[in-house]
Amino acid sequence: MAFSLPTLPYADNALEPHISAQTFSFHHGKHHQAYINKANDMIAGTEFEGKSAEEIIKAVVGKADKQGLFNNVAQHWNHSFFWESLSPVKQEIPAELEARLIEDFGSVESFKTEFTSAGGTQFGSGWAWLVIDETGKLHVKKTANANTPLTDGFKPLLTCDVWEHAYYLDYQNRRPDFLNDFVNTLANWEFALKNLKGEGFKL
Ligand code: MN3
Fold first, then answer.
1. How far is the CA of 100 from the centre of ligand 1 (A)?
2. C or N terminus of the chain, fewer CB within 10 Å?
3. 163 CA to middle of ligand 1, Å?
4. Rounded to 5 degrees, what angle do the CA atoms 161, 163, 166 make?
5. What separation in Å is there between the alpha carbon of 112 and the centre of ligand 1?
6. From ligand 1's centre to the CA of 25, what distance in Å?
7. How far is the CA of 103 from the centre of ligand 1 (A)?
8. pTM of the entire structure?
9. Of 44, 82, 71, nearest to 160 (Cα)?
10. In terms of C-beta density within 10 A (0-12 exposed, 13-18 middle, 19 or more buried), how is residue 47 classed?
């Protein structure tokens, strides 16, 4: 079964004025679709046919001759996860998740500062993440390009794409403003909580 573009879980203008329909038309309709097309071309007729995106990512990470496959499959996973990490309606952080953020970061504000700082200091393209480790502790991570904390033993709870294509039409060079809007207005905390409980995302 080849990979296919997931439908956005909201209308393409539902996150305006923060993320415009025009951004989604390029980011979801062109960039994400291109990663899927390239991944499917590379997978067809190989041992990876029929494998999940997560299985392929973990199997090929760090292999120089599979860098292109890693990049395109990981970007398919990362983007599918990112669409779900956004909410068209501003959400309060659920009490159960809030308690865990306070436990591991000291306060919700400290977590937000660490997250926006991670995304803001990722030089060039990449991602900011809220993840959980094997012992159940929450961490903020940043990764470059297509890289994902999945391959370092972490389970992602929430992500923000900080490639320029994610925000440039709406924010131009103001990546910190995009990240502040993400943590204060756009983040889907219910999705993060589902992932925390192990009821979340699989691809
Ligand atoms: Mn992107």
1. 28
2. N
3. 6
4. 65
5. 21
6. 12
7. 31
8. 0.97
9. 82
10. exposed
Ligand 1 centroid, distance to 95 Cα (angstroms): 30
The model's pLDDT over 137-182, given as tens digits with 9 standing for 90+, comes to 999 999 999 999 999 999 999 999 999 999 999 999 999 999 999 9
Strand ranges of the sheet holding 138-144, from the earlier edge strand across to the other edge: 138-144, 126-132, 155-161
Q: Are 127 and 143 in contact (CB under 8 A)?
A: yes
Ligand 1 centroid from CA 166, angstroms: 5
pLDDT value at residue 79: 98
Mean pLDDT of the 57-65 span:
97
User: In the predicted model, is pLDDT for residue 4 greater than 90?
Assistant: yes
